[in-house]
Structures are given as C-alpha cells and as structure tokens.
Design a protein that fits this description.
- The chain is α/β, with parallel strands linked by helices.
- It folds into two domains: 3-37 and 279-378, Aspartate Aminotransferase, domain 1; 39-277, Type I PLP-dependent aspartate aminotransferase-like (Major domain) (Aspartate Aminotransferase, domain 2).
- It contains 14 helices and twelve strands.
- Helix 5 (119-128) links the parallel strand 3 and strand 4.
- The protein starts with 11 loop residues before the first helix and ends with a helix.
- Bound molecules: 4'-deoxy-4'-aminopyridoxal-5'-phosphate (PMP) and glutamine.
- Glutamine is lined by residues 11, 13, 30-31, 167.
- It is an enzyme of class 2 (transferase).
- Keywords: Aminotransferase, Pyridoxal phosphate, Transferase.
- One of its GO terms (molecular function) is succinyldiaminopimelate transaminase activity.
C-alpha cells in the first residue's frame, strides 16, 4: 500500500468494539455514551427530516449553525468570530483535523503534538506527508514538560497540535502551561491546531481555556470542536473549525473534496443544542463526574490505582499490578477472561514502550453498566 497510509490500519476502536460485540462484553473501550442527547435536539433532527431538510446544505454549514457556534464560543470564552467568514462546519472534528492538516502541512514539514495522540492525528499527518514530533505526556503522572515541548521546535516546525482536555490521559492543561505554550508558539511563529472536543467535560476545579484566547494566538489558531461529546451524539458527526478568514478559506477548499458538505438534518438540531443546551451540558458534567468516581472506586477495589482524570470521559490505569506488562495483550485477553473491553494506550504512541503498561477505560455509560463491569472485573482481582 502507499507509504502515506502506513498508519492507516484498522483502528483500535473498531477492533475492540467488534470484540465487544462478538464476545458479548461490556464495552468500556470506544468513547461513546450509551444514552442520547437532549430530547429537544433529537426532536429537531426528526422534524428537519420530516420537513425535507435532506439535500446538500451549504458548503460551510447552514447559517444558523455557524451563528450558534460563534455565539457559544463568545458566551463561554469571550472569544469572538465572524459567522460568515471564520467558521466551517465539518463531518466531525476528525474531518476538521484532517482538512486543517492537509491544508497547511507539506511533505517534510514537522508537526509537534502531545504524545499520546488521538489516532487520527498520526494518520492525517502521514496523509499530508508530514513528520510527527511527539512531546511526551507520559505516565504515571501525564504532565507536560514545557522545556521538552520547546526543544521539539526546529526550523521545519509548521504546526503544533494541542489537545486539551486530552484523550486518552484525561489531562487538562492548566492555564499557566497554556500561557507558556502560547508564548512558545508565538516566538516560533507556527500555526496551531487546537482539538477541544472535550471542552465541556471537565471535573473538580478544572476549567477549560481555549488556547486561542492567549495573546498572539487567535490569528494563528484553528480551534476545533464537535457536537459528538458535548451533546452525546457521536454518530451524527457534526463538528466545526473556527479560525481567521484566510485559514478557514484554505481548510474549506480541502473539505470540499473530502466530503463536500456535512449532514443536513443534524445541523439545525445542533444549532438548537448549542443555543439552548447549556443546562443539559452542565447536568451531563455532574453526572459524568459521579460516574468517574464510581468506576475509579471499582478499579481501586481490584488493586488498580486509576489517575482521576480532570477532563474527558476516560480513565487510565497501569495494569502491571494484574501481572501484565503489555496493555494490548491485556485488552485482547480481557473480554475472554471477564467480558469487559478497554483500550490499550500504546496505540496512541510512537514510543510504544512509554504507553505499554497503560489501559484506558471509558466511563460515559449508564450506572448499571458501570456497576456490572466492575462486578465482572472483580473476578480478575
Ligand atoms: N479528537 C479527539 C481527542 C477525540 O477523542 C475524538 C473522538 N472521540 C475526535 C477528535 C473526533 O471527534 P468526531 O467524532 O467529532 O470526529
Ligand atoms: N474518539 C473516540 C475514542 O477515543 C472514538 C472515535 C473513533 O472510534 N474513531 O474512543
């Protein structure tokens, strides 16, 4: 196969979800909730289909959704964008990431990214012919070393990809680190792509601050998010990118030839959710924090020491106390041993040794599902 798709094998999410189905296991692997988003959002999509909103929408997304994205960003963060020129609706954050990388990264360009990285980053950088330069957010603490981050920059650095709240570690970069990351990006005059799909899923005293809000950043940052996590609608694949008009124009040019446009009847529904769903999301956050604690307690009771994530709906454990050194081997055996599926960290690393002992567990599931998973896992202890 072509060199540029060398990282494009079957994703670990597809492999593990198939294993969950074939073994009847509880799936704490792939990150999707097992309950739906707000009723009014679902009803709006049903009505849109009934009303005949079923043909190609405008390329950049329908006006009311672009306006809702802009209003939401200004309401939550005081960051202002133009709904006509500075927003692009995409087929999930995945497409926004791919289009942004393909639009700006040339063969030979380097892309600095926090490692572990979400799997599509590696594939999209490969498709563009770029080179990944990982900066470790390694266990057991998953804390970024800013000196190492700065050392990653070379004359070839074209783009920096930041993901916070971070998948798979659940780390939320604190404001003082974001300020330093911003300073370094400005000093080196690079383009920044910020993946903020978990922007609203933060716990305890964590707050999410978009990198674009720091001095010198708005003009160089593509801020990407998605409705999948915020409104529990991962299958609708409605995401967006916000950036200065010149950048959005280039990303749109690529998007046209990836998918052309994105899901017509879902767009008015997500527009409504963004405009009217703040209370629903606030409840989701409280609920997820409780679920996080429930799963953490269960994992502790089997002798594991989960690092409590401050964001996302994923929790990480080191599986060495269970006699494994390789998380992939653990995850492939776990369904057969006790009927639970999890995701090995190492698939998110170039430095697989750094990720080998860690396993990620999703807690965006109904309480009874989490409780049953904990019961099954107790058999391993
Ligand atoms: N970035 C991160 C960090 C993710 O975890 C995910 C999906 N789970 C995505 C991007 C992709 O989002 P979408 O489903 O909207 O394409
Ligand atoms: N982002 C989700 C996760 O990290 C899954 C998305 C996918 O299957 N590509 O689990």
């Amino acid at each position: 196969k072509a060199d540029r798709v060398r990282s494009a094998t079957t994703t670990i999410f597809a492999e593990m979800s198939a294993l969950a189905l074939s073994t009847g296991s509880i799936n704490l692997g792939q990150g999707f909730p097992d309950t739906d988003g707000p009723d009014f959002m679902l009803e709006t999509a049903r009505q849109a289909i009934a009303d005949g909103i079923n043909q190609y929408p405008p390329g950049r997304g329908i006006q009311s959704l672009r306006q809702a994205v802009v209003d939401h960003t200004s309401r939550h963060y005081g960051l202002h964008y133009d709904a006509d020129l500075e927003v692009l609706v995409t087929t999930g954050a995945t497409e926004a990431l791919a289009a942004a990388i393909l639009a700006f990264v040339n063969p030979g360009d380097e892309v600095v990214a926090l490692e572990p990285f979400y799997d599509s980053y590696a594939a999209s950088i490969d498709l563009a012919g770029g080179t990944r330069v990982g900066v470790g957010l390694f266990g057991p603490d998953f804390v970024l070393d800013l000196a190492e981050f700065e050392r990653a920059f070379t004359a070839h650095t074209k783009m920096v990809l930041i993901n916070s709240p971070h998948n798979p570690t659940g780390a939320v970069l604190p404001p003082e680190q974001l300020a330093e990351i911003a300073r370094i990006c400005v000093d080196h005059d690079v383009l920044v792509v910020c993946d903020e799909v978990y922007e609203h899923l933060v716990y305890d005293d964590a707050t999410h601050v978009p990198l674009a809000s720091y001095p010198g950043m708005r003009e160089r940052t593509v801020r990407i998010s998605s409705s999948g996590k915020t409104f529990s609608a991962t299958g609708w694949k409605i995401g967006w990118a916000l950036a200065p008009a010149e950048l959005i124009t280039e990303i749109t040019a690529v998007k046209q030839f990836l998918t052309y446009v994105s899901g017509a009847p879902f767009q008015p529904a997500i527009a409504r959710a963004l405009n009217e769903g703040d209370d629903w999301v606030a409840e989701l956050r409280v609920d997820l924090q409780r679920k996080r604690d429930l799963l953490a307690e269960g994992l502790r009771s089997m002798g594991l020491s989960p690092a409590l994530p401050r964001g996302t709906y994923f929790m990480t454990t080191d599986v060495r106390p269970l006699g494994y050194h390789d998380g992939l081997e653990f995850c492939r055996e776990l369904p057969g041993r006790c009927g639970v599926v999890a995701i090995p960290h190492q698939v998110f690393y170039d430095n697989t040794a750094a990720g080998a002992p860690y396993v990620r567990w999703a807690f965006c599931k109904r309480d009874e599902v989490l409780e049953q998973a904990v019961e099954r896992l107790a058999k391993l202890g």
